[in-house]
Design goal:
By secondary structure, this protein is mostly helical. It has a domain at about 15-30 and about 55-80. About 85% of the residues lie in helices and about 0% in strands. It has helices spanning about 1-30, 45-80. The chain is rod-shaped. About 10% of the residues are buried.
Length: about 80
């Protein structure tokens, strides 16, 4: 039973880290590949891309914090 609990906790932590990595990469890539603003056109495309990449980076950071809190709580529960 302890092995099953350990595997569940391990898979949950790894899933949180993978989610945070994915969202952070999507945010970085969408920021790097944003369209360049022309003088003739408005920068609506650029601003939408910046908003999307910012939301993705914030979501990735939230998953990273959740993973850190999960691992911190799990090690405390294991030590007790």
């Amino acid at each position: 039973m302890k092995t099953l609990t350990f595997l569940q906790n391990l898979s949950t932590g790894i899933s949180l880290v993978i989610l945070s990595t994915g969202f952070l990469l999507i945010g970085i890539l969408s920021y790097l590949n944003r369209p360049q603003a022309n003088v003739a056109s408005h920068s609506l495309d650029t601003s939408c891309c910046l908003v999307g990449s910012s939301v993705s980076l914030i979501t990735g950071a939230a998953f990273l914090v959740a993973a850190w809190l999960y691992w911190n709580r799990y090690t405390r529960m294991q030590a007790a």
